[in-house]
Amino acid sequence: MEILRTNGMPRGTVSFSLKPFRRIIKDYFMICEAYHDAIRTATTAQIEAIDMGRRGLHNEGSRLFEDSLRNSVEVDFNTSRRLFTLICALHRRP
Known about the structure:
- By secondary structure, the chain is mainly alpha-helical.
- Helix content is about 65%, strand content about 5%.
- The chain has helices at about 20-40, 45-70, 75-90; strands spanning about 1-5, 10-15.
- It has a two-stranded antiparallel sheet.
């Protein structure tokens, strides 16, 4: 990952392993699938419960992302959430 300063100048490159994300990404996709299935048949309360679980996994992945970069670069929580979303999108299988 290429890091830029706030003025747009290059700061450097950061590498990290995606291996620690495998379980969370797998679980995240499973719960997203359950959410989409539930939309068709489940009650509102069940859908909300599944969505809370989905958000919890997303937050867990975001925190893991922050921890992975802690020694290299400062990342706020909202940015780490966006980066986790990107990682998931890149791992999505057709």
